Amino acid sequence: MKSNIVEVAGGSFIVTGISYATGIAYYNAFFRSMNGNPDLFTVSPERVLFEGGRQLLYIAFNPILMFVGAVVALTMLHILLSVFGFTWIGDKYRWVKASTFGQMISATSWAYLFLFMAIVTSYAFSSGKAAGEKYGSQAVCVRSQIVLDKNTVTGCILYKTEAEVWLSTSEQGKSVLLNIPTDKYSSIRVY
Going by fewer Cβ within 10 Å, which terminus of the chain is more open, N or C? Predict the structure, then answer.
């Protein structure tokens, strides 16, 4: 029982880490697609984890569903055949498990798990980056006017959180991405 709890807790940390890395890749690509330096913008950890988790689920859902479907189908076939006296599926499973190959796989399963997690992490990071770039290129302009303490700024709100607004505007003919903290503006007018 104790080892199962440790495995679940350890797996949770790994999945959280992969989600975080994927979310960071997503937001970095999002900001870069709008010519923004991602180091200058803060994204709350829950948004990073949500976006990373969403990307991870997008990547892993179909393969996991196919694997579970195959296991359920094989189990149902085994049960159905064993009712009629055919036990070759169970016999093959026990033979593979008792073989030298099966014992070697069992003894080095941690290395295969590490390799699998490295492949998933790499793919998830790349997928998050691609999704962030796609979202940034398809970002819709929400034409707005933000009333600051001393002046007004007009542009496109690209992203808004509880702590800040990210506004794309034009200054001296150049596109500028502004980060305006919530305590620096009094209202937002959306057109």
Answer: N
pLDDT per residue as tens digits for the range 24-44? 999 889 888 877 778 877 788
CATH of the domain at 164: 2.30.30.100
- Residue-by-residue DSSP string for 4-50: HHHHHHHHHHHHHHHHHHHHHHHHHHHHHHTT--GGG----HHHHHH
Q: What is the pTM of this model?
A: 0.68
Residue 156 shares a structural domain with residue 67: no
Q: DSSP letters along the chain, please? A: -HHHHHHHHHHHHHHHHHHHHHHHHHHHHHHHHTT--GGG----HHHHHHHHHHHHHHHHHHHHHHHHHHHHHHHHHHHHHHHTT--HHHHHHHHHHHSHHHHHHHHTHHHHHHHHHHHHHHHHHHHHHHHHHHHHHTPPPEEEEEEESS-EEEEEEEEE-SSEEEEEEEETTEEEEEEEEGGGEEEEEE-
